[in-house]
Sequence to fold (688 residues):
Amino acid sequence: MVDKLVRILYVEDEPDIQTVARLALETLGGFTVEICSSGNEALQRVAGFQPQLILLDVMMPGMDGPTTLGKLRELPQFATTPVVFMTAKVQPSEVAGYKQIGAVDVIPKPFDPMTLSGQVQAIWEHCHG
Amino acid sequence: MVDPAELQAKLKALSDSYAAQLPEKLSQIAHAWGQLPKDRWDDGGFQTLHRMVHSLTGSGKTFGFALLSDVARNLEEYLKQLAQAKTVPDEEQRKRIQVLLSELHQVTLHRDAAADDQSGLIAVAPAKQDIASTKRIFVVEDEPEQAEELKIQLGYFGYDVSVFNKLADFQQAMQATSDVVVLMDINFPENSRGGILATKEIQQKRDVPAPVVFLTSNVELDARLEAVRAGGIAYLSKPVNIGNLIDKLDSLTSTLPSAPYRVLIVDDSEALTTYYATVLEQAGMVVKAVNNPLHVMEPLLEFTPDLILLDIYMPECNGMELASVIRQLDAFVGIPIVFLSAESDLDKQLFAMGLGADDFLTKPIQPQHLISSVSSRIQRSLILRSFMVRDSLTGLLNHTAIKDQLDREVAQTKRRGMPLAFAMVDIDHFKKVNDTYGHPAGDRVIKSLSRMLKQRLRETDMVGRYGGEEFAVILSNTNGETALKVLDAIRKDFARLRHLAEGKEFSATFSCGIADVSFFGDSVKLCDAADKALYKAKHAGRNQVVLGHAPPVSGSDFV
Fold:
């Protein structure tokens, strides 16, 4: 029996994307979403929010997505939490690279707000399937 | 469950606010680019630029700007290559970046129609087609006098003209310019085909070739051939016949006005009309709903729909009766009428068709089906109507159409208490033009006046060809005095226009009479007053505009 996906942490520096992602994931997908604007903020708040799945933008000022992932993995309780990268670069080789450093999948940007929840749900089911 | 309409509305609002921020974002990008030093590599500055562009790549499509994402991605890839080399971009590379930046500007206008699979509704308005409304012209001509003359003549038609006497200046300007038509001389001091060479160079750097019209006194075939190969869309010999030139420019820059389709819905169920209205409005149409069939006449006349959706079963008056009534009105003989009903009995459907229906949609109707059948009907009927209502020489509304339009406009302005002016324009001594220079020359004068009126008046104004050399203009929301100023300015410019017939130049003038709706009760009186004012203008020596006076006070007008 797979746990129902409820809590998603989304790390994204752009306010525009934050808003539309929240709308897509909460209103349409029915998830509970916590949004952080930087890798640092994510590291500070992740323990308090206890996400089941983390969405990470790759290109952020300061700490980028892969670095944030590395730091998250150093926290024992999030060593295995599924992390999905969000990125505009979706060359197959790059996707493979992201998976190698521990992402379960990559959602290409720009995403379609109407289908984002479905994508996330599919990834969740896939990594528990 | 989420209300799809509400979600739609929210997404739309987000997309709107994203759209509103785009100009600022682009100007920040342009600024970051402009700030980069040209003499040394600035890693930090370059990263900033890269990140800004990257953010467009990653967001555009999400907010309905797919093209923006694509172009930003191209630019981003290119910037990435440069960043790897860490060398200051050279001239060539800078140009490439400029081109991509200007594309970025263009595609901000292209908003997509988002698809909303969940609700089955068609989401948001269709991509806004900002059709080439280019009115900018670059004249590249080494002889200053000829260039100035072209600038002046084209200016009369409302074109915004920049003159370049040197090819190098022109090439410089083209780097930052996209929507422009180029008029290019071929012979330059440095090279007898310098214009062609420069054009080739320009075109190579562009993804979408710039429209170029070559001007030359050279009639050799190989020069023409070369011009075609350089992407020339026309080749005009000097001295330039301004009429021919404007013809070319018109075909490049003007398309049929794409006003949103107007649909009148008559259905006694408020819930259903609201639903249909929402579906059609989301597809970018303008909708008016009437719930009581007996109240249909006023909205019909005032709203002037392109199509009527009629429910068959309504209390008091059924859809079929209503269709017959509407068909009896001259102005609506041709309007598409589509019945909506739960009726699936084919006999009844056919009977309805016999009464003047064009189509029959069975409830419940799929939103997509409703949109496509409504819009394809409207499209066809508008094309047909354009043949009926347009004058073949000028493309203006014909006599009947402009009169119908005047009736409608006057009724509307009277009800709303808005100003409106009506003008009659007549070319002076037109017979003499025909006799002296021939009918083809006369036709060209008519065409040039029609174009000048179209281009110089607002899109909401209506211009018709009233008779041979007579035009009618409806200036909505304009009082007599303002109309006088506008038309007098056009009169002066028209008189300065130089027409060409068999190598001879001549000019023509027009007279004009104007009447202001506030003094006249109906369109017949208004028309009559404009005609009288025109007569006065002719009588006072022609080449002038006269504003008709209020009729003498008589009891009947002030009841």
Summary: Residues 113-133, 554-559 of chain B have pLDDT under 50 and may be disordered. DSSP finds 19 helices and 17 strands in chain B. Chain B has four domains: 4-107, 136-253, 262-389, 399-558.
